Amino acid sequence: MNRATATGWATTRKLTRTLSSSNRLGSCWLVILVLLHAEAAAAQTVALWLFDEPLGLYPSTPLESADGIDAPLVLGLGGRVIQGKFGQALSTDPYPPVTVPTSGEETAALHRFPVPPGRTQEPMSWHNAQFAALMTRGENHIRKEVSFARVTRTDLNLGDFDWTVEFWFLAREAAGSGVVLELGTGPRAENEIVTRLSLDTAAGCFWLENQAASVRANIPTHGASLGDSLHWHHYAFVYRSSERHLLHFVDGRRQGGALPLHLKRLPPGEEDYLSIGRDGRWGRPLPGAIDELRISRGALYEADFTPPGSFAPASTLHPPRPAQPLLFSSDTPRTGVVPLQGRKHLFLDDALFARSEHISFSAHPPRRIERVMDGIEGPFRKHLTVVEDQDGLIRLYNGGPDDYLMVHVSRDGKSFTAPDTGLHHGNRKNIVIAEPAPLGRPIIDPNGPPEHRWKYISGLEGRGVYLYTSADGWKWTRHRQAVLSFRSGSQSSLFYDDQRGVYVGYHRTGFPRSEGGGTRREFVLAETTDVGRPWPVRLKTQAEVQQIGKVRSLRSPQPWWLDNGPLTPGDFGIELPTVFQPDPKIDPPGSGVYVPKADKYPWAPDAYVAFPVMYFDYEEPRQPATRRVLYEERSRGLGSGLVETQLAVSRNGVSWRRFPSPAYLPIGTYEGTPLHQIYLAEGMVRRGDELWQYFYGQQDYHSPARRRPEGNAVYRAVQRLDGFVSADAPYDRMGTIVTRPIVFSGRRLVLNINTGGLGYAQVGFEDDQGRPIPGFSVDDCVFINGNFVHHTVEWLGRGTDLSELAGRPVRLIITLRGTSLFALQFVP
After folding, report:
1. Nearest to 729 by CA among 341, 326, 357
2. Tens digits of per-residue pLDDT, 619-637?
3. Within 10 Å of residue 715's Cβ, how many Cβ atoms?
């Protein structure tokens, strides 16, 4: 039951009790009451702004409508998000002063614009964007990546139909007069064809102006509440078109009689706008804060009522399950006994080592690569995600026409088809999200109810990062409030970390400046336990950003949210910790992390893998001319650089070690096609002892001088199970690993190991005093010789049964020669 329905029923029950106590009233009154209730129940929310975005929200960031039409506002310099009646609220106190830099991109609106011929108002820039909250179809001279509603063509255009406007208001100590909302046909402040609701504390009234009907109505109100700076008060305005009158309520109590009014919608305007908290000239600020502004089609209130609670939707996303602690997190000391038990251990690093000799770690590219989709026509985003569903169907998601999300499917992992999902767009029948949201990764989440089992975090247009959920991965619903209020510049990685009990996202920032004066592409880390609410981010002031800029090379403008202008949110900056970035110790100048493709490895705990797509930029302004010529001389037919996929590993998803060589997926010729850009898909599929990964390969260079779309294709890369990194001993000498003390459970020790033809390995046990355990020493171990994904270790005369050693502290001694050791596990 929605809140309007509940209010209608409450009113009906109250009046029914009154009428039932009097035998003089007939059943006709009950009929009237039922009709009144039905009318209230049929009311529809047009828009609901909760203003629950994060405190300290940057100007240019959207304020979302939580219900009704998709009607985002944008916060301006003339407002700020503060603590509210429920969650947060919108205040017309100006955002703290910001010095607007003089350098940056043209679209950043850092400079004033001349008044166009025939106009009287200076076009919007950061020098005059003093609105509080605004949507507009005008101001098209600056970047606008938020799809604003055409307000005069919606029921936000209040006129001759039943409607209700309600909100909570808290006055400032020095209250005055100001605008609640103003809707105009535009151009903004160039004419006075507006509908405006304002308040006047001194006169103890509201004013409603509707210039389409030449109306300026004085609405008497509870004057004391308008000046109350200690308590929030609820105000409602209800218009009934059939009676052509307006009712007004304060804290649920009707104020006076019905006010006769005849209202009309404004005519459609090509530059129409809606401003909350200030008028179209950014003046007449509302003298206080407003919370939970709702506009409904329908007359919701006829008689006194109890003021509603919060309209914010209740969360239906369950909290994460209890976490299994990491064994090798950065804050775990390397002393004491490791409770390995039956966990599989991948040899990504020396985390389990007490000491070693002649051991190194090597990355292993996939063993086999084959083309599975070619002849690709039409829009096809290079950022892919592969998911195997509960029925074993392999799904490949990516952006299609107009960046709508689409899917291809396969049973065998090689032959992919486009299913008919019922959503068709741009000659595609396989659309699953019918809006421009291609920059995420669908996952099947173990948390939450079945209707939200699938989750997807993606940038939408250029307005923020949003959560989508689905029961089946075919039909998705966007949750209205942005989970991260930044413009997304590339694909965001997402996974649920079952050991730390958090959702993890990686997002690209282009704020850092490279050695060559260009963009240094890095990725920052966001984490949360509540995936459906705004993720924790500490927003920064201009002074804080400039202080960081003294010790770290950053691009201009500073702060970074100025870069996209007043009507498009800023990209991710330096608010979150950086976890993927070029390493000056190993990477050449001008390198960048295009996207990390990071994940928690599904088939072993304490293991995280990433496949950073690395970019070598020819275009940087301060690089040698011998490098820049590769881009600047377009006749060469190249572009701005090459893109390859590397490998990185981690024990906690935060601190990563990258293996730049050999490249995991190097540029080169694949099935006869030279590839100059390779983007590995998010996710992987397991089939037996193989891992299947997918990537998009392009003949084109990045920002190509000449496009070669005929070479674009999707490939499958086949990897050994657990086979990304190994602990290696050289061919010509013996290597040794002595582990930290462990306690294990199980009866057998199984290794994933490749000794080659002439290499070998042996394994032994020592007690907690460092003494070989009789019968299970290295010398007792039967030689391991061969290439095995699952090899059970055997001891001469004792066999494979280790149950007598289980549950007590022991050390493993592993000797190897010419061998790669990928993983070990004690099993039942």
Report:
1. 357
2. 988 889 999 999 999 999 9
3. 24
